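On to our target:
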Amino acid sequence: MNTARWLTSALLIIGSMAMMSSQAVARDTPYFMPIQEVLDSTDGKAGLDTSIRLVFSPTSTAQPVEEHGPVVTNRKTNALNKTDEEACRWVMLSALIALQDRAKEEGGNAVINIRSFYDQKEFESDTEYECHAGALMAGVSLRGDVVTLP
């Protein structure tokens, strides 16, 4: 009888932990964060290449000399031991660096019309980006056009 009671208690605890764990992993909280915070951060100033311009939608009025094609980046980062906001800023910086790296590969000097593209849904803003955070990961997806500007 004692063994059966212990086994039942153990199974209830394991089941409860599994349910809490799956709920925590399934969290997908959207955030709309300021782009300028990332650009002005110490990490942003150190990690971004000032020779590759980043122009966000919808105010993109830049007239390219040459078009190199569209680019999409989908970045994730570990969110453990970070606030959602910290994880979002970190993964946004990673996504911007990826856009700049692609521009260099394509021979461009800018990425224009940058907009959020999370789950292939566009969010256009020249001041904010969309980030989704969960218990374990945070993610940012961006879409833009690699070009050469005068």
Observations:
- The beta strands are 29-34, 53-56, 66-78, 110-116, 128-133, 137-148.
